[in-house]
Write a structure and sequence with these properties.
The chain has 130 residues and is mainly alpha-helical. The protein has one domain. Helix content is 74%, strand content 0%. α2 packs antiparallel against α4.
């Protein structure tokens, strides 16, 4: 949702102002929200390959098919965001690079939170074994 409100704010929208669903700024904001979901799910798929093992212990390339899936997901997202047919079918609008960059920290936060959760699980498992 940060991406949604970021785009609205950067576009001059004021809190309480109503925008029609076909307003270009609203369409761009919903596109940012969709893109945020895609970006964070990339971090999620990398982080959630194991219930308790760290990604760094598993290795980032231990399952190369994940990267094929990520590449396909990104390609599809780029078509939805930047191709006129994708814009028409999905009611999306092109985003600036800045919007993509603003979304990345949320993916990193999700990744870090999952790694922290796994560390707690491993600690509890060690305590239970001893």
């Amino acid at each position: 949702m940060f991406g949604f409100f970021y785009v609205l704010n950067r576009g001059g929208w004021q809190w309480g102002e109503s925008l029609a669903v076909d307003h270009p700024l609203y369409i761009q904001a919903t596109t940012a929200c969709l893109t945020a979901i895609v970006v964070t799910q990339i971090a999620n798929v990398l982080a959630c390959r194991s219930f308790d093992e760290s990604v760094f212990r598993l290795g980032l390339i231990s399952n190369p098919l994940i990267f094929v899936g990520i590449a396909m997901e990104l390609l599809f997202q780029l078509l939805i965001v930047y191709h006129p047919i994708g814009n028409r079918i999905f009611s999306t609008a092109p985003l600036t690079l800045t919007v993509w960059l603003v979304l990345i920290p949320f993916a990193l936060l999700l990744f870090a939170a999952e790694e922290a959760r796994k560390a707690m699980v491993r600690a509890k498992l060690r305590i239970a074994v001893n």
